[in-house]
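User: Write out your own:

AI:
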Amino acid sequence: MFRLSRLPLGVRVAGVGIAAMSVVIVAAFSTISVGVWRDAKTEGHARLRDAALSLSGLVDSFDETARQNADLSHRYFKSAFGGAWQLRDAAGKPVLLHAGKAVNDDFTTVDAFSGITGGVATIFAASGDDFPARDHLPQEAGRLARDRHAARPGSTRPMPP
């Protein structure tokens, strides 16, 4: 077996010194690592918080811009259709009237709306548990003008074919 007492005093002192320095170095590196890790974690949280706040600001800005654009588009469209509406059934087909005039195949206002806003206008009218709808797309997109019945939200009636 190996005995430290047989080693010369200088070797024993050097060995103890090396072991002590190793403990001190490991302790110092551990302390520094914990501090650096804590700082990095705090800084990372701060960066994530700042990024989240920045993203939240962008979403809020986009939302406000979209709301303003929708409001302007709504005002324009409403100015063209500012009167009374009626929904009548003519030979089993719903006819939507505005100020006494059928709007089912009148694309004048919606084409003007699309030309100014670049958007698409769809006019919905409630009829019982269904929504008869008229879709109006710009001429260049291929006009889609058909009656469509979609089940009203919460309705238990199936959608017609």
Summary: Confidence is low (pLDDT under 50) at residues 137-161.
